[in-house]
Amino acid sequence: MDKAKRKAIIAGNWKMNKTPKEATALLKAIAPLVADADCEVIACVPYVDLAAAIEATAGTNIKIGAENCHWAESGAFTGEISTGMLKEVGVEYVVLGHSERRQYFGETDETVNKRTKAALAAGLKPIVCVGELLWERECNITEEVIARQIKLDLWDVTEEELKNVVIAYEPVWAIGTGKTATSDQAEEVCAFIRAQLAKLYNQDAADAVTIQYGGSMNDGNADELLSKVNVDGGLIGGASLVAEKFAAIVKAASK
Ligand code: PGA
Predict the structure, then answer these.
(1) How far is the CA of 225 from the centre of ligand 1 (A)?
(2) How far is the CA of 174 from the centre of ligand 1 (A)?
(3) The domain that contains 110 carries what CATH number?
(4) Model pTM?
(5) Closest CA to 31 of 64, 9, 62, 65
C-alpha cells in the first residue's frame, strides 16, 4: 500500500494553552482556512475547552481530540478524565503517551498501554506518541527505544483495533525547541516504526497505519517533512496555536 492510500492527518496539540473562549475564537479562525483540506484535521485541546471546541467546529471538517484519558471507567482517581466522559461530549481522538506526560507526570509504557486499550475499547482513536531523548539518540539506541515503546504501548492491541490507532513519532529533543528532525531523520524512524508494526502484526496492517511526525513542525518545514513516504501527517504544538500557520501545514498535507 502506498502513502497516497493512507489517511494524512494533521493534528494540533494545544497543550495547556487557550481558555474556552480563546479556543472558540481560534477554531473559528482556523475553520474557513482548512475547509477544503484533503486530509484529516484535528485539534486536541485542554479538557475544559472540549465542549466549546465541539460547538465551535460543528458542521466543519475539524475533529476534536483530548490530550489524555484514564483507563478506568470511573472511580477514585482525583483529577482524571474517563473515556466515557470524552465520548459523551463528542470527542473522537485522544493524544496518549506524549513525552511531556512521560517526562513530568510519570507516564510509563505500561500506563500508556492501559490508556490506549481503554480508549480503543470506548471507540476513541488514540494518537500514541513515541520518541527518543537526545541522550538516547546520541548513544545510538533510537531504534531500541522506539521498538520497545511500540511493543509495550500497543501490547494486546488487536489487528482490528490497530486500524483506529495513529502513531506520532516525536523525537523529544525536537519538541518545542525549534530543532526539527531533518526529513531524512523523520523518515528513517517513521519507516522503522512501520517495520516494527509489520513484525508485530503484518505488512498490510502496518501499511495502513497513519504515522505522524511531531517536533517543531511548522509552515516552513511541513512540505519537506510530509514529502517523505512514511511521514503521513503531523502532530503540531506551537504552530497549531496560530490559525494561518496551522492552515499552511494542513495545506501542505493536502497536496
Ligand atoms: P511543537 O510540539 O510542535 O511545539 O514542537 C509538538 C508536540 O509536542 O506535539
Answers:
(1) 14
(2) 8
(3) 3.20.20.70
(4) 0.97
(5) 62
Residues with CB under 6 A from ligand 1: 13, 170, 175-176, 214-217, 235-239
184 burial (CB, 10 Å; 0-12 / 13-18 / 19+) is exposed
Pull the grid cell for residue 179.
530543532
Dihedral of CA 141/126/2/34: which sign? negative
Summarised one tens digit per residue, pLDDT across range 65-87 is 999 999 999 999 999 999 999 99
pLDDT tens digit string along 204-250? 999 999 999 999 999 999 999 999 999 999 999 999 999 999 999 99
- For residue 91, the enclosing domain spans 9-253
**Closest ligand 1 atom to Cα of 13:** 9
pLDDT of residue 176: 85
Positive or negative, the Cα torsion across 11, 213, 182, 215? Answer: positive
Atom 7 of ligand 1, residue of closest alpha carbon:
237
Question: Residue 1 falls within a domain, yes or no?
Answer: no
Ligand 1 geometric centre to CA of 167 (Å)? 14
- Best mutation site among 236, 242, 249 for ligand 1 pocket (most ligand atoms within 8 Å of CB): 236
**How many domains are contained in the chain?**
1
Q: Is 98 a catalytic residue?
A: yes
Give the DSSP letter of residue 61.
S
